[in-house]
Design brief:
This protein has helices at 4-10, 13-21, 27-35, 42-55, 58-66, 78-83, 92-109, 122-132, 137-164. The N and C termini lie close together (9 Å). It has nine helices and no strands. By secondary structure, it is mainly α. Helices cover 67% and strands 0% of the residues. It is globular.
């Protein structure tokens, strides 16, 4: 059986880019990462993913942010549903508060609230969003980019697991 990393390495460039876009919505990131194949290990893939992500201009980060659903909104994407599982048992009041803070956040920063939601309850995500509203735009963009990087790393691992199955 061919492993997930071997399969990713062997994909045609366009197919690899499409697979990588599921991990991070920046086309430039996916294009550059696909071009660096083959990777010798999952760690090499993750290191390259981080290096490329951190080298991108803010426009590419914003493109990646825009590929995410808002926290608390339902999604047909299985990865997103698992990542945001903490919102499934949230009260209607907490979900309404999340929707409100999402709107306020977008008005303030011009992009959706990004948080690595895996393992977090809806109340934790709400508290994070509310606290981050006090950041200046530059600081918040850097925090959101780091949260996106965490999400990307988790999704790359899921991609390799799914492909190795």
């Amino acid at each position: 059986m061919i492993g997930g990393l071997d399969r990713l390495n062997a994909l045609p460039r366009e197919d690899a880019e499409a697979q990588l876009l599921a991990c991070c919505g920046s086309r430039q990131w996916a294009r550059r990462l696909a071009a660096e194949r083959p990777f010798a290990s999952a760690d090499d893939l993750a290191d390259a993913a981080d290096r490329i992500w951190r080298s991108l201009p803010a426009e590419d980060w914003l493109e990646a942010f825009a590929a995410h659903p808002r926290i608390g909104r339902s999604s047909s994407n299985a990865w997103v549903r698992r990542e945001q599982a903490g919102t499934e048992s949230a009260s209607p009041e907490t979900l309404a508060n999340l929707a409100d803070v999402n709107r306020e956040y977008e008005e303030r920063f011009g992009h959706i609230f990004i948080v690595c939601a895996t393992g977090k309850s809806a109340a934790e995500m709400l508290a994070l969003a509310e606290s981050r509203l006090h950041n200046d735009p530059r600081t918040e963009r850097a925090i959101a980019a780091e949260e996106q990087r965490k999400i990307m790393r988790l999704r790359l691992a899921k991609l390799l697991e799914a492909e190795g199955a």
